[in-house]
Design a protein that fits this description.
With about 650 residues, the chain is α+β, with helices and mostly antiparallel strands. It is about 20% helix and about 40% strand. It folds into five domains: about 55 residues; about 130 residues, Sandwich (Jelly Rolls); about 140 residues, Sandwich (Jelly Rolls); about 140 residues, Sandwich (Jelly Rolls), CATH 2.60.120; about 140 residues, Rossmann fold. The strands form eight sheets. Strands 38-37-36-39-40-35-41 form a seven-stranded parallel sheet, sandwiched between helices. Strands 1, 3, 4, 29, 32 and 34 form a six-stranded antiparallel sheet that branches. Strands 5, 7, 8, 22, 25 and 27 form a six-stranded antiparallel sheet that branches. The radius of gyration is 43 Å and the shape is elongated.
Length: about 650
Amino acid sequence: MRLHSRRHREALLFAALLIASTLVLSPAEAGTYGVTEEQVIVGTTSGPSATGAADGQSETLTESLTTTQVPSTPVSQTLLLAEPVSGTFPAGIASLDGSEILYTEVGTGTPATNTVTRNPATVGTCTFQWGNLGIQPDTYTATGNGGDACVYLDYGLSVPAGSTIASIELGYMAYSNNGQFYLSLSWNDGGSWCPSVSSGPLPKTDPPSYTFTNFTACRAWSYSDANRVAARFTATAGGSVQLDANAIRVVYTYSSSYELDVRYLWTSVPAGAPQTLTLAGRILGDNISVEVLTPPAAWNARGTVNGTSRQTLAYDLTPAEYNSGSPAVRFVDAAGSSPSPTSLWLDYAAVVTTVTGYRLAVVQNLTGISGGSPVLEIRGAISAGPENANVEVWNFTSASWDVRLGAPFGASDAYHNATLFPDERSGGTVRVRYVDAGADDAVQATLRLDLVAVSTVPDGGAPWALAWGLGLLLAIVAGGFAFAFWIRGRRGRDEPAPPKGPRAPLEIRPGHAYLVEEPHPEASLHLLQDLDGGTRPILAISRVDLRFDGAAREASTIRSYRLVDRGSLRGDGLLTPSLERTVLLIEEFLGAEARGAVFLEGLEFLSDNNNFGSVLRLVRLLVDRVARTDHMLLVSVAPGIIPVEDLRRLKKEMEVVMPLP
């Protein structure tokens, strides 16, 4: 087929280059993705179908009146008369799960000292011959050879609870011609042992009395340790050892009376009605009274723990006992002091507040998402201020909700964007939740959502494919330019050059967005200033330092911001390359002005500090924002400063106009 004109040949060349570049560098799919699923947890909605476009048609999410039980655990404990035996405060009483805190009474009477010596009742693991003959002193003995060992338990010391151990010793009657014993005590029925101690040389005949070895220094012995004591005898090499008897001797100090006083304090208990003190516990010993403080100093009994099995108590606090969110409770002896200590186990302690108010919780899924650099785009508003809602995004790695937009909504529709993290997208799905930003309240609020979407930009292929594709594309382009020069060389012979004519002047109208390529942006900005007799407010954002003489600037309606690096000094008229801050600044300006003009220069600077995909989304938002309004947008770019492909995509979003001559 013969090419009849230069234009035909150049059109064919352009088509070939376009097809080749598309085949070589075809990007992954990108686009804008809306809500596909919605789950209403608390509240009511009109359905997400109206959130597909920023067209003024909104979905409404309305709070519902709910009743919630809010438990509050105590924040501190005061042990005036109590010994904590086991459990951790406050974790042990935070839930009704059998994880208890054990308190015992402490002695408050005159202390007395007692000494008790007891023989074992049980032979445990034993390789001695006739090990049971080593229990009581008599004419018979247990025999152990080198390496043999024998454990004895159940000494029946019955040391009273709350007693203080002064000393604990292991006594034995034993003899041998050449052998010895290694001796040890356990404080938990043979589970753990003190370091072994040698008996030294034993007498060669059966002695008439015990020889005692002191183990007091092994640990800080408690009365419960003494009541679970066990003894171990190990025969050394060198001959058989004869054990006639063994015993434990313990010296302890005890009180003639015991008392308990444990106090719990709460803070920041939420308001509501009722506030119910809820307890679960049990005792061993005397009854324990539960008392609640009426400030400043009146303690009133509100229940009694009186059983060895767990029981639950519930009492509604009075307003005075609620004490503006800081109630106090104490546990004391119901009948005063007693001659033996009482043990109190507490499994649960909380003030449960019944809170009635309006709440919202709605989850939306956006699925089928592909492409890179995903951005969550929301346009909406909320009624019944100062009530607000948080926008949360599900983190698929941590399995938790991340607050991405904290209480962003106002009374008027506005855009709110958040760049999504990799952990917030899984298999092409993003999950968004709207929940109350504050506590339940008495005012019903409605959240309006005009747009909910995730937008992405094309992803490049694998690095090796991209490098190969770029090389092939460069080769195609080089060949194309050679062909183009050949065509131009024949232009005079094929057809005459087109006549030259004047360029179309820059003409802009409200409700439109324009792109102009010009070496100096001041010319277009001055044109904006001259519109409507210089009365139209202008927001100018530029990397170039826009300079005006003092009188002209003072009389102008222009607000100018210069784009600066993130590490630069802050100040009035300076704006870091944050896309979120830029969008917010422009939205505030357009929301405040009925007929404003936005001048934007420095897209290459914003792209360098973010990425071009995000900058393109910013432009799209602004184009949609000014459409069909009395606002206008003018974007100025310097020739050759933006890559050709990026510039082409910008031109698709805006009307391209010629610069001023």
